Every structure is written in structure tokens, then in C-alpha cells.
Amino acid sequence: MTTYPEASPDTAPEALPEVPPKTLNLAQPVFIGAERHPEKTAFLCREGVTSYEALADRITALAGALEQLGLQNGDKVGLLLYNTSAFAVAYFALLSIGIAVIPLNTRLTAPELDTILNDAEARLLISSLEFYEAVTRLQVPALEGIILDTELLQNESELDPLLNSFPLSCALYRMDELLERQLSPAMPLPYDLPPDTLATLIYTSGTTGKPKGVMLSHQNILADARANVAVIEAVPDDRFITISPLFHVFGQTNILVSAMLAGASVVLVRKFSPKTVLEAIQRHKVTFMAAVPTMYLMMLTHLREKIFDLSSLRVCHSGAAPMAVETFHDVEKFFGAPVQEGYGLSEASSIVCSNPLHGVRKPGAVGLPLNGVKIRVLLEDRQEAAPGEIGELYIQGDIVMLGYYKRPEETEKTLLSFPDGIWLKTKDLAYKDEDGYIHIVDRTDDLINIGGVKVYPREIEEVFYKHPAVQAVAVTGVPSTLHHEAIKAFVVPKNGHECTREILLEFCRGQLADFKIPKYYEFVDAIPQGATGKILRKDLSRDI
Length: 544
Hints:
By secondary structure, the protein is an alpha/beta fold.
């Protein structure tokens, strides 16, 4: 446990812009920033530097173009883009006029995109030439048009054949032409919207079936971003970096919206690669980074082989999945900045709780609830769990979603009514310690049934990470008998280290009860991950 001194007034973050209590808009912070510091850098990316004033102008221009195309408050539009300025412009332009954003996973195939766009009833799709092939195979009857970002186009002549042979019946537009047509010196503020106006539909990964659209309002995301800015102590001089994809709520809330609220700058990295991110931190003097543990593990591999100047970093935030204690200490050693571990989920707009930067940080814990957030750990009979007792995590606050789109039954199972209001049932197993810090144990779906005894994969993985030959590990259950399972470990060995089943079995003895020691082992080059770096246990082979 590490203790840091309390923050002094000199280091406290600047007061956040006031938002009207009855109406608000997620795009407002950009326009407030454009009024207060128009020349300040909002984004740095391979396409160039964008000031707050230029960003607000482009947002206004695209919003005007969208309205001319017939879109209006309440419509829904898909975004299929990498971490680019085009994503940010489109995201805030849509929000500014009350259109809901459907951020799309850039790894999805055309049929998978069809499923989401059809379910969401999207009227328009904003994408880029990088996804031209997938876009041309879409089968979304309600889609009225597609806007293509051509910002990275090198040769105009290469574009004409693509546009002239576009196979879909819907209209096709170029974003640059729409912007040029609409650009003007005027910079009106976004529309005032009721706080519960739908801002975005975040589709889950579909680990338990078809993807579900998580409905997040302007108030949901703004409340979470404001609480995030406070807990990370963000200031206008900060430089954030987009390690996680912006199509994920983690990237939108923790980076994009939080940075705009703080009046800070964002370094846009199109796609995650360890070397690219480390080079960007060094080149642009990044101060704040947020990533998931598997991404940190990948960057650590590079840091052990080459020295990067990461001295500008003041905090390394970790979320989306629990970080092994060994990884926690390695990140602090090699990145030279404190790890601020937190916890969140899409249904709660992203971040829910976090270790404080100044005060007590506990490796392995995900900290305390953010401002305005209430947390309970409940047993199966809905009784409050005692300190140290494992139960299921429940959340209440303005950050909790409106529900699942067009899925009232799923919503009813997840948003539960209690005497003191509605609480979000997370399916995450956790416990509170004596200080009130939350410790995530595992997902209820990931528990392994060993002869009727429930085993937590994370407990086993923590032991494996202590072994010097283990680069990464994932543990899951595999069929053993009719009603029970055996434990299987998927291990990525470190280069130059001998790593065998016998070595790991011997290492586990004395650290784990016999029934918790994995019986089966598979040595792999990589652990399957989602777009945000979260382990995809459903993709692990259940063969023995």
C-alpha cells in the first residue's frame, strides 16, 4: 500500500465549466474551450494540429451539413473510424444537434456491422476509405447515406473509380466537401437538450449472445467524465493519448470528453501498437495515459528492450480488467509514473471507481467510488456483504445507463428496483475491504466449478504472473464431468525463459490449493483480446 501527500492548492485542477442544470450537451465543453482559449491545441495527430477554435468550426460545419441532409434530433448515425480527428469532429457534431452516435468496432466484418446498424435503425454511416470494402458489402435497407472521410487521400485520381462504382443504392458523400460547403466564421453553441437525451448506443461485444445496445444519455457521459476529470486531477496543461479505441466507451469518456472538459489536448493514435504509443508519448510529452493491463504488458516488453523518455507522464491509469499486482509494480518501475487502477463498464458510462492519486493507493484494488456514485456489494439474498466478503457489485448514480435499446426484458434484469431507487446489477464479483476500497474478484460468468466449489480465475492468474517465465496468462474452465469442470491455463512464455507444464505445476504448489492448480496447459503466442485489450475467455480453446 502506497501513501501520497494530499494535493496542494497549486496542483488542484482548474474549476470545471458550469453546465445548465436542466439542459446540457456533450459538445458544450468544446465550444466553451473555443471561447476561452481558441488557439490552444485540441488534437495532435498524423493529419496535423487542430485548435479548439478550428475544431468548433468544423463541428458547426458538419452539424449544419447533417441538418441539410435531413437528419434531426433523435436520429441515429453510425461511426466507423479509427482514432482520428474525423471521429472527434463527427462525434461532437452529431451530439451537438441531438443525434445519437453508434460507435462501431473497427474490427467487425460487414455482416457484424449489418447486425448493429439494422438493430440501431441507423439513418447514416460516417466512415473512411480504409473501410471501403466492408462498407460496400453492407446490407442495411434503412441506411440513407454514407459519408466518407478522405483526409488521408494522397492522389485524387484514385478516388474517382471508387466513387463511380459504388455498389450501394444509398447516397454517398465526401466529408471534406460537406465541410467546405458549410464552413463559416459563425460558432453557435450546441443545442440545449434534456439531460436524458440519448447520446450514444454502445454495443456490447456479445459474449453472451447478440450484441446489445447500451443507451447512454448526455447526462450519463458528462457526469462520468466530470467525475473522471476530478479523480485524475486533469488540468489544461495535460496531454491525453488515445491508446484505447474511441469506438469504446473507455476512449470516449476517459479520454475524449474528459480532455475537452479539462481544456486539455489529445494526442490521437490511430490504432494501438506498443512502439507507436511509446514513441508518441516521448515525442508529444504526454502526461496522462489510460490503457488496459494487456496493453501495458505489451508496452513493457518494448521498454525492457529499448529506452524511451517517458518522464512527462504523471499518471498511468488502468481499467477495463484487473491488473495483476506484479504488472502494477513493473508499470510503475518502467513508466516512472504512479498507476491509478480503476474499474468501470459500458452500462455505467465507463469509470465507476478509482484509486486516488493523492492518498492511499492499493495495488490490486480498484479504489473508491467516484463523486456522485454509490456502490454496494450484495449477497444472493440482497443483504449487504461484510468487509472482505465476496458478493455482486451494484451501482447507482447519474452514470448508470438508460437501459438496453429495444430490450426491455434484458433491461429489467439489469436495472433493479430497490427501496432507495434503481441499481445497476453488474455481474462482477467483488468485496470491500475495511477502508471501503473495492476489489474485483471475477465475473460471475467466468467462475469455474470444481466439484461444486467455485474457483476464481484471477486468483490463479495472479500466482502465474509472479513466475519470471510468464509473459501473459489466462485461466478458464474446461469440461471434465457432466456437471463440473477442470482448470486450463493458457500461457505466453517470456522470451529466453524455459517454461513448461512441470515448472509451472511445481511453482503453484504451496501457493494454491491442489484443486486450484490448473490440470491442463496450452502454451500460446498470444492471449485472444477484444479491441480494448480485454481477455476474450470465450475464444479460449476448451479442448483438453
